Structure to design on (306 residues):
């Protein structure tokens, strides 16, 4: 099983909807094919997230939103539920796929988390090519930053609007679960701001073979404050269904902080759920040869995978 999300969103324009839908379905299919060929859950979630980082429709990699200076700073994390090994990076620039760097932190260092200059030096040492920062900047995100500055003034992000992230959760044929999350963060964010996405400590995601795996999206500061990922898995540990766990944790964040967001969850038996409190959340899931997808509440399409 693999489930992917393209970030909670205040709304997605009609013109963009089809591109977003195709992108999210493509990511789920790539991840599912990795699983089908006997690949690990970690390989599958990384593969799916790379597809989304390479798609300018999503707020990660080459579609990342811009900070107050008009630059791209990206965060990402990944976790293996088998042994709780994890890797994360924050405030990284000038690389195409932060999730690849997070995976290398997990696999090639004794640490969990590298940031900024340290992450950049490690990327160079690992042979990850540097790309010019402007290659990650899209026309749409330049306009979004200008609009945000006009409307809000600097450094006052709107927790109803700034919700985009991408992520994936998976269960492989050996019973291992994993998650991956990647983001460009919040439009007009302060230089050096880090959100929930790279914070494995139960915010941006979590994976434990004994429970399941989760990736979160939404207003990062709210997610950090309630430890959204671990909170949802706590409810699963307490015997709640995936749906109940998702609703309880998102409901708590909304009532306590007015924070909106979404979660994708998979458990150790292959059950899965997608839930969100934002207006929409592009998602796709693949299981037993079927691909499910949707963007708005109550909308699910099902297709057969070749």
């Amino acid at each position: 099983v693999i489930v992917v999300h393209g970030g909670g969103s205040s709304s997605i324009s009609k013109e963009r909807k089809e591109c977003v839908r195709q992108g999210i379905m493509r990511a789920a299919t790539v991840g599912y094919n990795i699983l089908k060929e006997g690949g690990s859950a970690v390989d599958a979630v990384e593969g799916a997230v790379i597809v989304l980082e390479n798609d300018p429709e999503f707020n990660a990699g080459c579609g990342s939103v811009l900070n107050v200076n008009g630059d791209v700073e990206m965060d990402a994390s990944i976790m293996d539920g088998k042994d709780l090994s994890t890797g994360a990076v924050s405030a990284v620039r000038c690389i195409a796929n932060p999730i690849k760097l997070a995976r290398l932190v997990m696999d090639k260092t004794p640490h969990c988390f590298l940031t900024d200059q340290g992450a950049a030096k490690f990327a160079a040492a690992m042979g990850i090519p540097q790309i010019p920062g402007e290659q990650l900047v899209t026309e749409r995100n330049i306009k979004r930053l200008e609009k945000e500055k006009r409307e809000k003034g600097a450094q006052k992000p709107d927790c109803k609007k700034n919700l985009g992230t991408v992520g994936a959760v998976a269960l492989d044929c050996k019973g291992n679960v994993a998650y991956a999350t990647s983001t460009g963060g919040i439009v007009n964010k302060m230089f050096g701001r880090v959100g929930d996405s790279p914070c494995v400590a139960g915010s941006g995601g979590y994976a434990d073979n004994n429970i399941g795996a989760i990736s979160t999206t939404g207003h990062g500061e709210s997610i950090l404050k309630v430890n959204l990922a671990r909170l949802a898995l706590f409810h699963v540990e307490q015997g709640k269904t995936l749906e109940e766990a998702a609703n309880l944790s998102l409901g708590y964040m909304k009532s306590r902080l007015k924070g909106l967001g979404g979660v994708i969850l998979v458990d150790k038996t292959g059950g899965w759920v997608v839930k969100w409190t934002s207006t929409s959340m592009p998602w796709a899931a693949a299981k037993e040869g079927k691909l499910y997808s949707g963007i708005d509440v109550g909308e699910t399409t099902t297709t057969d995978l070749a």
